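Handout, page 2. Input:
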Amino acid sequence: MSNSQRSLREKFLMALFGLAALTILAAVFAVSLHERATEPKFQPTLAFPFLDGRLDHITKIQVTSLDGTLTLNRRSATDWVIEEKNNYPAEVTSIRRLLIGLADLELVEAKTSRRDWYQHLGLEDPEEGGSAVRFKAYEANGELLAEVFVGMEQGLPDMNGASYRYVRLGQNPQTYLSRGQLDLGPTMDVWANLDFLTLERARYQSVTSVPGKNSEERRGFTASRATPEAYNFTLEKMPLGYQPTAPGIANGVGSALASMSIMDVTSAADLSFADATELYYRTFDDIQIEVKVADIDNQYWLQMAARDVRPEGAPAPIDAAAEAARQDLIAALNGRTEDWAFKVPDWKGDQLTMTLSNMIQVKEAE
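Output:
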């Protein structure tokens, strides 16, 4: 190959390389333009970036839903009360979870600002009949630190347990898809400290039921068991000619206090227990828990009290620590139930008001 031909070939290859380089540069430039054109305008951000350092300043929280407003007031770091429930103790764990959830709430995507679309996101104002739950947090001086309307959940929680929900902040019409842990509902079982009856089933030795004075059932009953290991509560002093409908028929009422489910609380002075069913639960270590259950406006409400029923003249307890714990339990239970009435679901009320007639049948001929 001559020198002129070699030179021409080299120039041709260099031209091809140059054209290829220009093509690559043009493609990179086009991709870059496309990415800039399509990248989101909204950058994820904290809903309340200033809140993390001021959580200890919050002294009042309002939780508003279709059912009304619960106002949680702080008396100390570990003492919160519910204003609308005569200052009944609030559940501090739920309050801490809410405050951390507000501080960590992240807005990940801007959505609509049209009010007529709020209904599709569950963000209509609850005070106007909407389904959103509104949280408001205040400082001691009355300054509103945070306000958020929480709507529908979108998709499933992520690997860290954070869920995606539609929110809007205060009176700003703009809505967002948020990421965080604001899944607390507006019900009393979330915000009231109702975990006060902690006696396990094995502690209960017997229950005596006395029907209300206007009850159609005139006969009371006692169901008991000999040891904590015995599973069934057995009806005592069966009426002549009758037998239990099943060996464990009294287990529901006998175990009712071991799995309490409380829905609401109010002042006992607001309700009448004059025609209540009375139950007397006795433990193997001589604690008596007295329960009054009344059907008021088709809802079951109950009152409770604890008593020390250790027999007079009984030997002094050998285990001083166990006796101290027993006395502390009685005092703690009375401290949480005195002057209060508690609403329970229908199934729990039915358990507590079980009558003798519902548990016995005519004895089969032998």
